[in-house]
Every structure is written in C-alpha cells, then in structure tokens.
Batch of 2 targets.
Target 1
Amino acid sequence: MSDNSIPKIVISRLPVYLRALSRMINKGQLVTSSHELGKALGISSAQIRKDLSHFGEFGKQGTGYQVEFLITQLSQILNLDREWEVAVIGSGDIGHAITRYQGFADRGFRVSVIFDSDPQKVGSYINGLEVMHASQIVKVLRERNIQIAMLAIPAEYAQKVTDTVVDAGVRAILSYAPISLNVPDHVRVSYIDPVTHLQSMTYYLSTEQDLMSQPL
Amino acid sequence: MSDNSIPKIVISRLPVYLRALSRMINKGQLVTSSHELGKALGISSAQIRKDLSHFGEFGKQGTGYQVEFLITQLSQILNLDREWEVAVIGSGDIGHAITRYQGFADRGFRVSVIFDSDPQKVGSYINGLEVMHASQIVKVLRERNIQIAMLAIPAEYAQKVTDTVVDAGVRAILSYAPISLNVPDHVRVSYIDPVTHLQSMTYYLSTEQDLMSQPL
DNA sequence: GGATGTGAATCCGTTCACAGCT
DNA sequence: AGCTGTGAACGGATTCACATCC
C-alpha cells in the first residue's frame, strides 16, 4: 500500500535490494522470493515484504517476485530511471579513486566534473576529465544543473565547500570528510568515514583474543 | 549505569562523538555539553546523555563534560587505547587511496600490509609498503595476528577473499565491494558502498526541480 | 541557574502469524 | 502447497520531563 511518508531506513535498504537483484539478473535468475533475498542479505523475509509493501504489490503469491520487474520498480522509486550527473570536489587520492570508480557509471551516476583548489592539479586529467579550479564551482554546477556533489577534501575545508555547492544548487552531498556538516533543510547529506566503521567494530574486539592466537 | 548488552546503534554513534570531541580539543575547547555536542551533530541532547549513560557518569551537573576526559573514556570503551593493525586487500585505486589515507593513522589504525593478486602489482610500493601476493594472506595475517581487514576488490572475488581472511583469523572486515558477505558469527562486517548512499538520496530528489532551475 | 542522569511515556520499526491469492 | 501482503503484537530506541547535583 502506497504510504505518505516512508521511513528513511526503508529507503536506505532499497539500494541494497537492488544490488542483490542485479546480481541475480546477471546470473540469469528470473524469479526470487523474500526468503531467498533475505537469506542473501541477512535480513528477515518479513522485513523485505513489509518494505516493498510501502510502494505497491510487486510479487505474486505462491510464486515470488520477477527479478527484472522488481528492479524496474525499485529503480523508478529511487529515481534511478535516468542518469544523474555528479560533481567531485577534491582531486587527491580519494577524489581520484572516486572519479575513476566504475561502479558509479554502472549504477546510474556519471562523474561529469571535478574540482580542486590546488593550481598544480588544475588542468590535469583524471579519467578523461579535466580538473577545474574550485573558483568555478558555482558557475559550472549552475550551468549544468548538477544536483549531487561528492566531497573528497580535508575536514577543515568541508563546511565552506558545502556552503558553496549548496549555493550552487546542489541538493545531495556525499562527504568523505570526517566532520558533520550543516546544511539547509532541502539538502541531503550522507557521510562516508571508514574510521567510524572501524572504531565501532573494535568495540567488539576484546583484547583477550590477542593472547589466544599466537603466531605459529 | 553500566549495562549488560549495549545496542549496536549506540556503539555506532560513539565514534561520531569522538570525532566531534577531537575537533573541540584541537580548537582548545576544554568543556562541552550534551546540548552543544548535539547541535554540532544534529542529534538531540537527550540522546547523547542517554548514550553515554550506558557506560558511566562522565559529566558534571551544571557544568557539562570535560572534553579530554570524555575522549579518554570513549577511546577506552571502543578499545582505541591501543593501535590496531589493518590489512588492505586489493591495490587498485581504492586500495591505494586507503593505504595512503592519513585519517587511519591519526585515529588509531595502521595499515601495515597490503595484498594483491595481480603479479604486475606485487612488489610495488604504496606509502612505503610493499604489495604482497594474495597467496600470502593467511600466512602473514596469522603471523602478525592481524584482526582487521579492509577489502578493496571487485565484488566477484569478495566472498572468496572474505573466507580467506576469516580463515586467517580476521574478526572485523570493512568491505568496499558492493556485495553482502557471509561470515561466521564471531566476525563483524561493515560496508562502504557510495552508490547505495547516492541511490537513497536520489529518492528525495524529485525530478521537477530540474525544470525549475534552468541554465542561466 | 544550568546541565546531567534517568524513569516514564512515546514513537517507530521489526517480527509474528495468518488470511488470501496463485 | 507456497509465498505474498498486512494487521496485530512486540521490542527497542528516542524523547520527555524532572529530580538531582554542582
């Protein structure tokens, strides 16, 4: 049943479903079930059915889900039935890796412009893309109506650059800088900070184990 | 009050608190409050107090929290009062960026070994670290008793490599491969997939806005 | 006065379990 | 028989609001 306001956490799982479904299609699998999908993802089948039920009735009782149909539906829901242009800010190691990462293009995103403030880097090419000077951000993003930016810059510049890209019309930011950003309500932010992931995992790594497993 | 089993979601917020507190210390700030911290992070003050209360009473009524003291406490809780060695598997763009990323060393993690299966890359140096052949994974990780691995490899190899590092004694995995991994119960996994972040943000980017903001 | 720590209340998300369809 | 879709039950997390202490 199509609901009014869908929980953020549900939305965040849809791309994960999509990822798994894509793998199935690539393997030639045509049909799946909430059970199978759940097992592959470590999620309960009830949750998957409930999540999908927010948007419609995509399955057939007794049968399951047509993989391709479900992919189409999820893609539409997530506005992925188009290509999104993305700007990368920062051409250091991370910006470099992002710009060359094939995974974006494969899944609906095109890095179409990259900026840096270092004159040494401006004018160089990454993945066939010329690095532009940061002073051009507002002009270029507005011209091309780019709404997504990825920040691959040090924490100390992150808020200022955020303000700039927001001013340029960006409405979604994926930041690799390890700092919480302030943005207006109409802008979404996601963070990628590998260290926070590691730091929460070490909570569960009791030091004792260290002593047990000796070098052989 | 120190509780028995602390919710995962609480643990996952502690590194974020730590990040913010570190910035405060760097700015010379000695004292903060749940209010201030919450505002900086976009979290309610009650939540911060409740989270911390799982582990002890770290604040002073009427005053707030000593920043440095709180950092010390959180670091201990998360087992960060030591250095953790990390193995990177895969020396492509992502592995390269990870290995050179200063943020790990600054926050308690040392990338101390890197592997690749491509003979072309084995023997080359990244950040002063020689790339070793993947066939050495089990031997080296066991010898050095390394318990954390970061996977920077294509999805199709991810499960096999996961099995290998688990066999080698790894108990925490941070994977950059866009696929859900199967691991035994005693192993923790976190995922970094920028595309899933982008894909959930585009849900909120209605296409209409496109038409409004014309190129000028 | 001001900020913590915490039971109580509320809100939200997950799981249960089953009716209903194929 | 098998699997979906879903109200109901459950469990957990967040917020409230206040007693408590500096």
Target 2
Amino acid sequence: MTSDKKSCLVEKLSHYIELDELAESQLASLEEHERTYHRHQEVYSETDELKYLYVVKRGWFYSYTDMPDGRRQIIRVLHPGDIVGFPDIAFEYATSNIRAAEDGCLCPFPKQKLDAIFEKSPRLTALLFLMANRELACVIDTLRAMGRMDARERLAYFFLDLTARLRITNKDMTDTIRMPMNQHEIGDALGLTHTYVSKTIREMENAGLISRKGATLTLAQETRLEDMVDFSDRYSRLDTSWFPS
Amino acid sequence: MTSDKKSCLVEKLSHYIELDELAESQLASLEEHERTYHRHQEVYSETDELKYLYVVKRGWFYSYTDMPDGRRQIIRVLHPGDIVGFPDIAFEYATSNIRAAEDGCLCPFPKQKLDAIFEKSPRLTALLFLMANRELACVIDTLRAMGRMDARERLAYFFLDLTARLRITNKDMTDTIRMPMNQHEIGDALGLTHTYVSKTIREMENAGLISRKGATLTLAQETRLEDMVDFSDRYSRLDTSWFPS
DNA sequence: AGCGGTCGTCAACATAGATTGACGCGCAAG
DNA sequence: CTTGCGCGTCAATCTATGTTGACGACCGCT
C-alpha cells in the first residue's frame, strides 16, 4: 500500500465480518496501484475493453450510461471503500461509464486478482459475493424509486440512501452530508430534469424536510422522509450467518 | 434429481463454461427438492425470514416490491434455469416478493449450499459470481429504461430482453415468444398503467413493429426495435477468460 | 476590476402518461 | 344456459413533469 492510512476497503468490509491476516493482505493487494482523477474526468467508457476493477480510495465517483441521443442515466454513486465495476465484470467490454464526481483517487486491479481470493479464502469469497448482491438490492431499490415514485419521493430516497451509506464508515455522522453533485447530476440519477430538481428541492426545503447551506445538506426530518418512501437501510446490517468458517 | 431430464440450471450454465463432474453434481444437489406453484401464487414475501434460494425448473416467475399504498414494481422476470433470490441473499429478511406468473415449479436450496461450492470449486464460484453480476447489469439496463425511455421504448426493451434470454436455451427460437404475463403485469414491470400499455402496444402493432396472436408475440422488426433502444444482448456471450483453471 | 463560465432559480407553455369509467369478448363455474 | 370475472380496449379529462428561455449569484481567470 502506498498510503499509511488503513485501506478504505478493509475498513468497510471489516464492518461486516472479522478479516484474518490472509484476507487483509489479499485485500491490500487490490490497492497496490493508484491513480488520481479530477472532477468530471472519465475513468472508463462504455465499449472500452475492460480487464480491471477499481477500489475507490478518495472522492465520490459515479457510474452512468448514455443513450445515442444524449439522454443520460446515472446508475450509482460510488464512495471511498466501494468496489467499482461489478456490473461490467461479466463482459469483455464495459457496459457503463465511470466518472469522477469530484477530485479523487482510484486503485485499479485486474479481474484475475479475484481468482486468488476464490481459491484460498472461501470466507472472503462469500463476502465479495454478498457485496455484489447487496449492490444488486440497492439498484433494485433505485429501480423501484424510478418506476413508482414521484419527484419528491425520489429525492427523499436518494438523500436517505447516500446518508445511510456514508454512516457505515462515519459512525459519528449526524444527519448532515456534504453533497458534491450538482442538480443536473442529481436529475440524471433520478430521471428528472435539473429544473424540476431545483423546484422540488426548494419545495422540500420550504416544507422543512431538508435544509441546505452551501454544499451541505441536512435531513431535517429524517423519519418523515423514511416514512414517505418506505425506506430500508441496506448498509448497516447484512446476513453473514451462512458463511463458511 | 427427481426429473429424468437434464437440469435446466446445468443446461443454462454449461452454455458459458464446460462443467466438470464435481460441478455438475454440486449443481444437481441444488435441485434435490422441488415444489409446484400455480399461477399468481406467492413464493415468498418481503420481510419473510429467508434462508433459501431457488432454481426455476418450470414456468415463468417474477420478483416485485410493493409500496404501502399499493403501488407495485415488478423487478425481474425469471425463467427456467434461473437462480432466484440473489438480491435477498445479503439480508436476513427478504427484500422483494416472488410470485408465479403461470403454473410452474421451483427447487429450493439453503444459502449454505453455496459454501460447499465456494470451498471446493473456484471455477464454479467464479461462474456464480458472474451470474449475479450479469443480473446486476440487466437490472441496470432496466433502470436506464425506466429513467430515460418513453413508453414505446420501454416496451421494445422489455420484449427484446425477454427474447434474448429465452434464446440461450432455445437455439432454434425465432422472433416469436409466448407471453404469459398480462398487460397489468407488463405495466408494473415498466412503470406504466395497464391502459397505457394497451394503447402503446396497439400503436406498435399498427406501426408494424410487433404482432400478436393469442398469447404469442412476434418481433416483426427486431432490428428496428434494437436501434430504438440501443439494445445490448447480455446473455449470448460472457467474458470467462479470467476464470481460475 | 472586469469577464465568461457554472450553477441555481423562476415562469410560461407543452405534453406524455395517469385516472376514471365504460364496454365487450371469452371462458370457467354454477 | 346463464352468470360473473379477467382481460383488453377506448375516450374524456387531469396533472406531473418536461422544455425553453431568461436572469442573477458566485467564482476562478485575465
């Protein structure tokens, strides 16, 4: 590792199971190399030949897809400690684009590195399998939001999800987060236009549900927001009871 | 196995890699038990305590989530040979509901059965990992459709996806499929009302894009439909080049 | 200090899709 | 043979969100 700080990935995963030395060293080997990106820089694009996955080390990133006519859908926001590229791993060419939401740093590692884990650490294998499927559950939550919620509910869901995710590695976090994405990006994540995002956020603010100050966002009435969207936290607890020992 | 026919799961997976005897027997052990369901019967519900996954043996099923006020989102249609429950595996309680779209049969197996695979078959492990992530990629495609496509495009995407999936195990399939879901269910899968589904399908039929006869559906102009939605087949080919040997 | 870009906001207008209610066909149950 | 229900369809009306265009605040650069 090139950083003195404990790996974000190890920190995030050890929230769920105890990692032995072999597991920790295997995970550390995923972060041997690193590369910095500046705000809005592309990491990779749809149809790139893709042999790598990435670990987020610093900064927010997001994955998205474009349509030929310019319509864009942001799929998922990625935070430090997240693994980037699971949806693309099954294919020779990437299915989505990755971009830096702000200045940050990624650690690329070849798909093949997973082999060593699959062969030697059944327990870590199970955890990676779980992380991929947890991501699936989260994308499904987003799908539910896009299919059946109105604009206000989608925004509530989006903010709640981000907050729940950030709390895993920030135990002492309150109901306030830094929000480095602009309203155009938020709209692309929720299937709305930036004008309507602006209008709806403003209404939510007037209703006392949230408040803003510069680039920070506060969930003033988190419980009410949760009730609005029937929110489930997919991050704080996972079922690892069936793991091999 | 209680059936004389080769397992659907083995058939589907061996489309991607060669399965050795150990792998085949491990997969077969997932289908030791079976249970039949009649059309519209629930398999499991959100908040059920869930220790099982399922292999679809016969018939179409689908997963969905409900909102407290009755809005419903169908997440994914499940065909013979598919594994049911990946998005729920990470949690103690189910995150979605499963229901039979028509009369069919499922094989339940406990999550723990994956342990034996993780411990003894790195190659099969990699394949299961791939299948879960392929499903992620497919849900992301659906998300893109829901976020950024209009009604006609969503329907085109939905029909193309189903057709591509069914072709894996039916090599000689043409552009015609049996469609056992009604328009209300199709609407719930695409975030539309059944009235609007009716109207839009009718328009597509008039435009010569598709045609219907009873419960069968034909993609009369498959290429044009693919161009409309920038369609990618996620089923015919996967990248297994990085698998352990 | 001036300047061009990004970003949020607002208002006027346009429209895709929802809602509601009605009708008819086919089919299974009595 | 009737009855009732699931299902597809159609039309009238309503509404949430998109579209376009404009303006002002802020911020880094010259």
